[in-house]
Every structure is written in structure tokens, then in C-alpha cells.
Amino acid sequence: MRKASLPFILMVSFAITTSAQLVKSSSTKAGTPEDKALDEISNTTDPAQKLALIDKFQADYGQGEFAALALDLHVSYYSDAKDYAKVADYAQKILALDPDNFAAVVHLAHAYSELHNPGAMVDTLEKMSAILTRYKAQSAPADAESDWKTLHDQSLADQQPQIEYVQSLVANGIFVDTNPAERAALADRYATACPDAAYAPMAESLAATSYQQSQDSPHMIAAAEKAVSMNPNSIDMLLLLADTYSSGGKNLDKASDYAKKALQLLPDAKKPDGIPDDQWKKQVTLQTGVAWSALGQVQINKNDLNGAVVSFQKASPLLKADTPTYARNLYRLGFTYARLQKIPEAKAALTEAMSFNTPFKALAKQTLDQLGTAPPAKRAGRGN
Known about the structure:
The protein is mostly helical.
């Protein structure tokens, strides 16, 4: 007996067919017609002739035990020809015959990557996840050899580079998707399909920020919370949630905890590769300001007005590089001063907030107009 030896099969390390193996292969008996047909295909260098021989193999032997092999031959041929639409078509046909064909999903993911189809790539990732789930759930058959589990586990370990290859390929496909709503849904599906993948926390964070861009607050919050559960030290997600909850006056204790944790993490945050030092310093400064402003908003919602003033004062100089966030913090500070009946301080903060063309200009003006007409401490309101 010998295995069919083709370049694309070797790439994914086909092994002897057994229930303990993740990757399967077909074999032919030496000297048989199908074996001779494979030799002829392998030895033929003319592309048109090779395809004709593969088509003939499909017609003659593409049923029963060699059905998947006949389709594999087409996948190999069209991979060499870089005809990725055909690769995808034949890989899908293999999966229709054998939904647990691991090699087919590897080729399918690569084909869809070349075709720039992130939605189909995530579909493929979900297929791979289902294959791995079913494989891991297998138990040794009654007539299995004593080393069945060792072989079973080793087969999975042997394919780890291919698993990570697909996960990386699909993640990259999602990250370059320019449609925020589509990117959010795909990133969410990615993290659900392979929560233990190295890219899963990053994908869930991407889902949260993409939902934010799409102004889908409920899904944004759900994705951000899921991202924090995957990576409790994700400063971006901690701040997104702290800012969202505090601005909405909801989950105030959680908002406070998230803001405080971000403040603890920020001084020691590691600069990612490729980001200039000055840009990283500006980002950390701004994020620190956002954390203090969120904490102040929690405090004003809890009527800790003096504590809120301190937090907003700490935030203010840190936020100057981002005009909308700076103006918002000034409005919050001015509103808090108004609640404390510190009129000169309130007017100064609100007047500066009005000097910027942001959504807080009108709110600052409205609060300034009210300062002389109603006792600030008795007015309804909590800032924004």
C-alpha cells in the first residue's frame, strides 16, 4: 500500500487513515489501475494534460473510497494554478462528502483569503471549530490499540500549526474589512468560534469598537464585556465600558471599578511594537484622562460632588489633545461647580467649554443661562 503523494497533501501532513487521526488520506494498492492513474497524473507536467487526466480519474474512480481523493486532485491542480474560486468549489465538495475533512477547511480558508471574502473565511473557521470539537470528543473504539489516545492527542498536536495558520488568516481578513457593522459581526463570530485562539480577545475588542462605530450600543457593551472576560487587563475595553456606563448613569459600581483598574494598569502599560514613543505617550495620557473623567461622572451620579470636582480637575489637562473629550470634561466640571453653587468656577469652566464647537457647547450655554434663575443644588440633572 502507498499513500497518494501530492504537494498540497504534504503541506498539511496527511497521515495513515484511522479514527485516531485528525488528518486522513486515501491510499491505493500498488499496480492497480487507480494507482497507475495517479502515477501518470503525478508525472505529467503539461497543465492541460494533467487536468484532463485528473478529470478522467474523477470519471473513472471518483466514487466510493476514492471520491474525496478525486476532488483532492482538483484542489491540488487549481491551487497550483492559483484559481482560488475553483479551489473553494472543490474543497466545499470534499466537505459535502466528509464534513470532518480537516485538510479541506485549511484549503478553503486559504482560498477565501485569496478571494478577499471575510464572511466566507469566518464560515470556514466555524467549520474548523466544529471539526475540532467533534474530534476532541471522540472516544476509543472497542477494538482500538492501547496507544489509541496517545495517537489521537498527537495527531491534534501535529496539526496545531495548521490550526493557528487558519486562525491567523481569518483574523487578518476580518481586521481589514472596512464595513464597521460587518466587521463587528464577523469579529464576534470569530471569538465565539475559537475563544482559546491567540487572536480571540483582540477580535472581541475589535467587535466592540466596530459596534461602537456602528452606534450599536447594546452589542458594543456585550462585546466589550466579553472582551474583558477574555482579557481582564484590556485597558481599551475597561475604558470603553467605564465611559459608557458612567455617561449613561448605569452600572456605576462596575464603571468605577473599571476606571480604577485602568488607572492602575496605565502607568505600566507596554507600548506595542511599531508605535512611536511620542504617540504612545499621548495615548496613555489621553486614556488616563478618560479614566479620571469617567470616575468623576460616577461620583457626580452618586452625589459625591467634591470627589467629582477632584476627578474632573485631574482629567482636564490630560484631555487637551482631544477637543471633544476635553470639552465634555469641562462641561462636567462646570456642571458640578454649579451644583456646588460655586458660580465663578462654574462660569469659567462652562465658558471655556462653549469656546469649542462640540456637542457640549449648547449644553454649557444652557447651564450658564440657568445659573441665575434656579438654585443649582436643587435642579434635576447629573451632567453628561
